Amino acid sequence: MPEARYDFDADSLLHEDDCNIFDAYENVVESALDMRRKFVMIVDQARQLKRELLAKQAEIDRLNTRDRQELSQYQHSNKDLQKIIQAQSKRLQQNRETIKMLHRRITQSTKDLEAEQMKLDQVDFLRCEICKENIMNVFTGCGHGFCKGCLDDWLHRPAASYSARDEKSCPKCRRLVRESEIRDVYLGSGTTTPSARDGDGITEVLSSDSDE
User: Which Pfam family is one of this chain's hits (predicted)?
Assistant: First the structure.
């Protein structure tokens, strides 16, 4: 008996719609693989972003820690600065009070000096007409006052230092000075009895009691 032969055609078993499904399946598989590659890429990017985020967070934490430390230092420095400012303000107030006190003292000293100057001005007429320092204690007949030492030096100066006309003249007005016209003046309490000048001179006593 002859052997039967069968010719198998696979394409004859697949319908056209089945081929379309197979192509669609292949497309789905390719899309799935492509999506998987994209997903892996996205996961890698996410991991990279996470590492960068952790690094940034660590940097931010470090900066925050540093800022807190600096803020704490600034707060302590601010407290110290406030103490210094308060101390300086207190010292400034004390200096102002001292300046006010010194101004009052200067004002009072100025008034005292003015009062003393007025007293000095009031007694200027008692100064010697020659030296302008000693209190006059003798008067000439022309009414000018001198201290006894200056007048004696003037009247007994060497002859070469004056002319014959000025031999016994007043140092102030050059009027002739006579020994009898020279008067001693005593400024005292009035209880002391002055001795008369040698010769016929007149002794005059000026006392504070006589002014009352």
Answer: zf-C3HC4
